């Protein structure tokens, strides 16, 4: 076990204000692998003050130079990709192959995309007799989750720095080690002191202090809808800008003309990826009544293959939460066709890949975000019924549509109340905007839409 010390504030590792620490547990074997300081409001204040002091110079730095620092950061992350992957595997429990490709690979691509955007975005433009300026919003307070720990930090830090903002990041307490590694990469990339700051700590202490700090101009949060509501209330009460990426209960709609086997297999893989700990996972599979039992059989067979291929859940509390939802599904009358609430291993926070059939739209497992490897399969009568079911939750983060004809799938997707829809298994695009409708959040991340979240607008009239 390694005991880490200090917070990254104003370009250096500084001693924490208090003596308390957070234990980092490997969810695969339940062993403590490290401790990090548990930050206090005093630590947050020091970080915000450093960010405010650095803001004028960084905001005035030419975009080309900001782009160069982001390109250097991308290169440092690429050089340390193996170390990043190993770190995420140790603290999150994800299989190393997934950590390499997704947890390390995607943040590198995102950092690179913002290096390019910083160099090419029109921060100043002419409209009629006016010059319109796009200026940094100021100091950003970023509160990030544990499920994609580095990606979420980069998805907030890279556009903030590209825009000319400075930032204070409070990472999730379960996965702080890769956040510290990222701070090292920022330092190595030559980002000026105070532009990026890191405070590890608990959400109700350090996270709340960051959201409430009067020196923070924008709060960017990714996590549960319940916590997002509290942060939104704090931010709006102080007239701060807020960006919230929250929960999801995404529908995977398989139209009758689709390639059923491919749609089901890809759909199951989507739910099982990252042990189901993905806010945009397609956790509701909607199948026409005429092909329903065939889809159920395909899904049960596919899920059974993931028994030894997915990692544990992040902690014991998350495991019990997911097991509780599985028990709730059984109690409400859903038909269990794969998996179940029993833990498949004696050690580690594992949950079996689970599939429910005969799920109806009003059931708890069809309405609430489970955040585990649990798939609900729902039957629909016709396209209007499918649309009603797909749009019938408080969430609207992502989704998928499958059809034999792309135009048919697109026509259905246009009527879905959700921020992002994959058509016939479309690939992830780091330049496409990501964010939700309804209670799935406010604002967008990634690409140019993610950059504009960190800008405010001024105009000169001539």
UniProtKB/TrEMBL annotation:
Keywords assigned: Oxidoreductase
Name this protein carries in UniProt: Aldehyde dehydrogenase family protein
Family the UniProt entry places it in: Belongs to the aldehyde dehydrogenase family.
Keyword Oxidoreductase: yes
InterPro entries, A to Z: Ald_DH/histidinol_DH (IPR016161), Ald_DH_C (IPR016163), Ald_DH_CS_GLU (IPR029510), Ald_DH_N (IPR016162), Aldehyde_DH_dom (IPR015590)
Pfam family, one: Aldedh
Active site residues per record: 245
CDD domains from the UniProt entry: ALDH_CddD_SSP0762 (cd07138)
Residue ranges of every copy of the Aldehyde dehydrogenase domain listed in the record: 13-459
């Amino acid at each position: 076990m390694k005991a880490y010390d200090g917070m990254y504030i104003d370009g250096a590792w500084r001693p924490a204000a208090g003596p308390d620490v957070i234990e980092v547990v490997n969810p695969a074997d339940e062993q403590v692998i490290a401790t990090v300081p548990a930050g206090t409001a005093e630590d947050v204040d020091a970080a915000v003050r450093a960010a405010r002091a650095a803001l004028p110079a960084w905001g005035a730095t030419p975009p080309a130079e900001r782009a160069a620092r982001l390109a250097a950061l991308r290169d440092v992350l690429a050089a340390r990709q193996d170390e990043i992957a190993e770190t995420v595997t140790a603290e999150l429990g994800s299989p190393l192959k997934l950590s390499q490709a997704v947890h390390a690979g995607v943040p590198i691509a995102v950092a690179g995309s913002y290096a390019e955007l910083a160099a090419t975005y029109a921060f100043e433009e002419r409209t009629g007799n006016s010059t319109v300026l796009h200026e940094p919003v100021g100091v950003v307070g970023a509160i990030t989750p544990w499920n994609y720990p580095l990606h979420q930090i980069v998805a907030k830090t890279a556009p903030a720095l590209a825009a000319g903002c400075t930032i204070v990041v409070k990472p999730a307490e379960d996965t702080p080690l890769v956040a510290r590694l990222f701070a090292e990469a920022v330092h190595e990339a030559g980002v000026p002191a105070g532009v990026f700051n890191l405070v590890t700590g608990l959400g109700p202490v350090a996270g709340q202090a960051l959201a409430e700090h009067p020196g923070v101009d924008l709060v960017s949060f990714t996590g549960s809808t319940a916590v997002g509501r509290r942060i939104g209330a704090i931010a709006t009460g102080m007239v701060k800008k807020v960006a919230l990426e929250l929960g999801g209960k995404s529908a995977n709609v398989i139209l009758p003309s689709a390639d059923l086997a491919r749609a089901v297999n890809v759909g199951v893989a989507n739910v099982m990826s990252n042990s189901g700990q993905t806010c945009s996972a397609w956790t509701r599979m909607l199948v026409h009544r005429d092909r329903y039992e065939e889809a159920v059989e395909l899904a049960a067979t596919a899920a059974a293959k993931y028994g030894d291929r997915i990692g544990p859940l992040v902690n014991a509390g998350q495991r019990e939460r997911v097991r509780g939802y599985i028990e709730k599904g059984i109690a409400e009358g859903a038909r269990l066709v794969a998996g179940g609430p029993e833990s498949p291993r004696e050690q580690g926070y594992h949950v079996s890949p689970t599939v429910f059939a005969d799920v109806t739209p009003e059931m708890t497992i069809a309405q609430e975000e489970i955040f585990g490897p649990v798939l609900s399969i729902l039957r629909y009568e016709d396209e209007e019924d499918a649309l009603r079911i797909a749009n019938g939750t408080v969430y609207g983060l992502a989704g998928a549509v499958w059809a034999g004809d792309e135009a048919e799938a697109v026509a259905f997707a246009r009527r879905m109340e959700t921020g992002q829809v994959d058509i016939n298994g479309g690939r992830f695009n780091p330049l496409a905007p990501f964010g939700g409708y309804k209670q799935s959040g406010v604002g967008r991340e990634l690409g140019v839409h993610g950059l504009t979240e960190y800008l405010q607008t001024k105009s000169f009239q001539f």
